[in-house]
Design a protein that fits this description.
Blueprint (H helix, E strand, L loop, with lengths): L3 E5 L5 E2 L3 H12 L6 H8 L4 H10 L7 H21 L3 E2 L3 H10 L3 E6 L3 H11 L9 E4 L11 H10 L7 E5 L2 H10 L3 E5 L6 H5 L5 E3 L4 H13 L1
Parallel strand pairs: 1-4, 1-6, 4-5, 6-7, 7-8
Antiparallel strand pairs: 2-3
Helix pairs in contact: 1-2, 1-4, 2-3, 3-4
Length: 230
């Protein structure tokens, strides 16, 4: 029985025109590097953003001081605040309707993200979503000790919604690390979605339960599971 679905935000349920990863790249390259957007997204997709910066820098095979990582991260946060002032944020197609239909079936909906809470709440506010009304809870990287691919955020989502068995949980996300997070939590399904950071072939490398191409497809996967175990 599926009791809870944990959705990633950017690229999965939120369309923010990729501004976060564009800003990550800009902040890193302002420090004297020349990483491409593809490199930044391939390495950093879905991760807590300080860790994403750390891993992108490490990919050049050189040693980097943690103080440099923190300086870039601090610059990134300032640049992102400025970008959000004029950013046009919208939901991914059918997100609200999908949440509503799932909750009507008695399935809890939680958003989780590699953003910190302040950033995530700004995105939610711009869309007009309200926690507790449009979905059940929000879990961010700053709420837990370990970010993706560790299962901490999913376990917190379960605790907040009273779900005890991870096999009753589905994780949905647009990056390999989202899929790995679901697998590490023991989720009943770990699904990739092609609306965001990574392509279907990239998502398949993480061995997801399935890859979907839009949020409405999820309903066809959930309904049989929900009905056969009710």
């Amino acid at each position: 029985m599926i009791e809870l679905i944990v959705f990633d935000m950017a690229g999965t349920t939120v369309d923010e025109n990729n501004v976060v990863y564009q800003t990550v790249r800009q902040a890193i390259n302002q420090a004297g590097y020349s990483f491409t957007q593809e490199q930044v997204q391939t390495i950093g997709a879905g991760k807590e953003k300080c860790q994403a910066i750390r891993d992108v820098l490490a990919s050049d095979g050189k040693e980097h001081r943690e103080s440099e990582v923190q300086d870039i991260f601090s610059n990134f946060k300032g640049m992102l605040r400025e970008a959000y002032q004029t950013l046009d944020v919208s939901e991914q197609p059918d997100a609200t309707a999908t949440f509503r239909e799932l909750r009507t079936q008695g399935i809890k909906v939680v958003l989780n993200t590699g953003y910190d809470r302040s950033t995530a709440e700004k995105l939610i506010h711009k869309i007009g979503w309200v926690v507790g009304e449009d979905f059940d809870a929000l879990v961010t990287a700053s709420d837990v000790e370990s970010g993706r691919p560790a299962p901490d955020m999913i376990f917190l989502a379960m605790a907040l919604t009273g779900v005890e068995e991870s096999s009753h949980v589905i994780k949905v996300g647009d990056s390999q690390i989202d899929i790995e997070e679901g697998q590490n939590a023991g989720c009943g399904m770990s699904l990739g979605i092609t609306t965001g950071a990574q392509s279907e072939s990239e998502l398949m490398e993480a061995n997801p339960t399935s890859v979907i191409h839009g949020l409405r497809e999820l309903l066809h996967l959930v309904d049989p599971c929900h009905q056969t175990t009710a």
